[in-house]
Design brief:
seven-stranded mixed sheet, two-stranded antiparallel ribbon, 190 residues, 33% strand, single chain, 4 helices, alpha+beta
């Protein structure tokens, strides 16, 4: 679409990105989307100040934003990291689409862009962590080519940086997808 653009988030975008993420994850400021954590975690998912601190303290982190007709509709966070065997990976997180704009394929567009950016930065795999009880979201990532690694990570119960957990059984499931050349059959015709 001609009026759609994906760009690296700049400091002026951070308040709008935080609002978007909170709406998508927690229903803040409107109805929650299908990927929400309503009933699992309460409070804000993030703040502009937290995002600013993250970006200021690490050159391995970036946030991509998608605008359509200048309206912020989606975002995704990327972080360069090392895998279990020391290989370069791209950790993808904070994938969020404004609830009113969901079911238009924007999440998939942002995920593929994040994977491409990770691969361009030398990542051999993309890693995502998803709250274990969000089976429909895990299934969506599996349809995008991600596979469960068998590993889990603890949920951060000790702080409220990502909100207040409402259940005692939360943990993160680790999913990974190898990154490599895009098969010619999936490239658009010129």
């Amino acid at each position: 679409m001609a009026d759609r653009e994906i760009a690296i988030c700049n400091p002026d975008d951070l308040a709008a990105v935080a609002d978007l993420v909170n709406a998508a994850y927690r229903g803040a400021g409107g109805d929650a989307g299908w990927t929400s954590e309503v009933g699992l975690v309460d409070g804000q998912r993030t703040t502009a100040a937290a995002l600013q601190e993250e970006l200021a303290t690490s050159d391995a982190i970036s946030i991509l934003v998608l605008r359509e007709a200048k309206q912020l509709l989606a975002c995704v966070r990327l972080e360069r990291a090392a895998g279990i065997r020391g290989q370069p990976i791209c950790h993808i997180g904070m994938l969020a689409v404004r609830p009113a704009a969901q079911d238009r394929g924007l999440g998939g567009i942002m995920l593929r862009r994040a994977e491409a950016d990770g691969m361009n930065r030398g990542a051999q795999a993309a890693r995502i962590t998803v709250v274990s009880v969000r089976e429909s979201l895990i299934a969506w990532y599996e349809r995008q080519g991600y596979r469960r690694t068998g590993a889990t990570e603890p949920f951060p119960y000790e702080g409220t940086r990502f909100g207040t957990p409402l259940r005692p059984d939360l943990r993160f499931v680790v999913l990974e997808k190898p990154l490599g050349p895009i098969p010619c059959a999936t490239l658009p015709a010129i």
